[in-house]
Amino acid sequence: MTTLEDYLEMNADRIDRMLHRYFGNVHGDLFRASAHLLLAGGKRLRPAVTLLAADAIQRGSSDDLILAALSLELTHNFTLIHDDIMDGDTARRGVPTVHTLWDEPTAILAGDVLYAKAFEFICLAEGADAAKIRAVKMLARTCAEICEGQSMDMEFERREDVSELEYLEMVSKKTGALYGAAAAIGGLLAGANPVQTDALYQFGINSGIAFQIQDDLIDLLANTEESGKDRASDIREGKQTLIAIRAREKGIDLAPYRRPLSAAEIEGLVTILQDAGVIEEVRAVALERAGVAKEALSVIPESVEKQLLGEIADFFVNRGN
Amino acid sequence: MTTLEDYLEMNADRIDRMLHRYFGNVHGDLFRASAHLLLAGGKRLRPAVTLLAADAIQRGSSDDLILAALSLELTHNFTLIHDDIMDGDTARRGVPTVHTLWDEPTAILAGDVLYAKAFEFICLAEGADAAKIRAVKMLARTCAEICEGQSMDMEFERREDVSELEYLEMVSKKTGALYGAAAAIGGLLAGANPVQTDALYQFGINSGIAFQIQDDLIDLLANTEESGKDRASDIREGKQTLIAIRAREKGIDLAPYRRPLSAAEIEGLVTILQDAGVIEEVRAVALERAGVAKEALSVIPESVEKQLLGEIADFFVNRGN
Fold first, then answer.
1. Distance CA A126, CA A189 (A)
2. Mean pLDDT, to the nearest integer, of A71-87?
3. Fewer CB atoms inside 10 A, N or C side of chain A?
4. Nearest-CA distance from B291 to chain A in Å?
5. Over the stretch A201-217, which tens digit does the pLDDT of each residue have?
């Protein structure tokens, strides 16, 4: 019996190999800029979800759908390249961001190239034409939602009164929708019926929301060595995460923490938030979403792959980086 | 017998009506930013090419393909929004550019939203699924080519030694490819066979190259009142157009004109270029491309719509704005 860890490692190797095949030897500044982040590694979770969903519907179908799985990874990377410009981020996955290494115009175009390739690759996968058309439509709608989510996220940075409902809408668009599409597209191309496709979408979107909430917790709780990220950056930047929203509801003022923080100050804040029950509550919301995700899978027949999909939802809320 | 002028006017009205239906009443900053340039008018030439190509293959088919025609207009507008950011342009179609009215992050996202809608709309058109998949692939490849063309265009601004071959490659990607896709997608969705589809693509790409060369001529020759654009901006910015390349070949140094120019200075330069035969030669290249475009149509059966397509190629090189 494959463990999820083994599966994800095998999958990441396979996806990396394919990405190197298609993007490892490109010519010219623009295409090298497009390939830069793609080739810097990553956990390749969205392709894993696509391929597991396909095999959960029809075992063996994933072999024909690698290009569709790549399409989800390309979409993810296009959004990262554009987001990094907007957010002014200088590093990701341990390498300088595209607009830092090249320039903003090149980064805009590099993202646009991956965007096009995502749609091309989904058409190049095997599968019935009607299913592919549905997959293209779903990917297109998802891309528009991701843009909306990123727009909300930026708008929230200028506000102090973001509600939990607004936060969940933002996260479900910015992060959840692409996991929803990853699962549903894998299913669709493998021949899932509409009920199964919808269930896979619900699985993905709820997993993605859980993933993002866990990301917020990791930002606050994990040491920089563990997470590879700047600890408590959300708090320092005044981001309206679920942690910040629940803290505000409990009368904890995070405004004084909107500045460079020492490790001791961060620990102090974590203790305050823990004592008020904020961390536990936020964690409960993430776990609940992972539960909803797994429950959605009940209409999918039992299989190893369905089992692994469920474990992915658990992994999303238990990972430490 | 419909004249081309009547047809284009009728078509622009129809496309404008559809755009208003889909984008006239959107909510939120992001979607308003996406709609801004779309609703500012335009000649709607790419949708016209799509619909005429469809009717040239199968009369009446264009009625089912309006959404595919919109897809081409959305693609064009997405590239304009992103190009305006990269080029730092502040006005287009008589209105402020998206990044000027909102900000750069919103403009990046607004373009990305139209990009997604372009792929969604092409799937929503009527037509055989297999043809739609081919259309999506063609649109995706075209988008990547447009990015490459824009990247070359920006790179050329930092060079003085661009060859005619390089210029033609850039123009065929930046402007030609989308006209090629507009014609071929219209044909594909109307049931064109591969020979016809390829001919329509060749018609479009050569028309588009002719269009761009004429654009360069208009920039230099037309009064600001006629063209609505800043006269001789290409010369002032040191753009490597076919005019600049041919002038260089004849030993005419345009470097001294890379600065604010009076109307008299522009007239003086035009006389120099005319006396050297540059204007006539560049015009001949545009006319030759329009001729190649029309010749490509020889495999398409005679019809009013084929006739109008040919007239579009002529119009591209005879228009004054």
1. 8
2. 97
3. N
4. 31
5. 999 999 999 999 999 99
Beta carbons of B42 and B15 less than 8 angstroms apart: no
Strand partners, A95: A92
Question: Which residues are paired to B92 by β-bridges?
Answer: B95
Identify the three-state secondary structure at position A259. Answer: coil
Residue B52: name the closest of B93, B100, B85, B4 by CA. Answer: B4
What the block records as the tokens of A221 is 């709780």
- Helical residues (DSSP H) of chain B, grouped into ranges: 4-23, 28-38, 45-57, 66-87, 98-101, 104-124, 129-156, 164-171, 177-189, 194-221, 224-227, 233-236, 242-249, 263-275, 278-296, 304-318
On whether any CB of chain B is under 8 Å from the CB of A156, the answer is: no
Q: Is the separation of the CB atoms in A171 and A209 below 8 Å? A: yes
Six-digit token string for B256: 């001294």
Q: How many residues are present in chain A?
A: 321
pLDDT given at position A228:
61
Q: Which residues of B touch A105 (CB under 8 A)?
A: 85-86, 154
Domains and CATH numbers, chain B: 4-318 (1.10.600.10)
What is the number of residues in chain B? 321
Residue type, position B158, single letter = R
CB atoms within 10 A of CB A47: 29
Residue numbers of chain B with a pLDDT score lower than 50:
none
- What's the CA angle centered on B78, arms B136 and B109, to 5 degrees? 110
Question: Would you state the structure tokens that stand for residue A316, as one six-digit string?
Answer: 């999303």
The span from the CA of A260 to the CA of A116, in Å, is 40
pLDDT in tens, A120-173: 999 999 999 999 999 999 999 999 999 999 999 999 988 989 999 999 999 999
Strands (E), A178-266: none
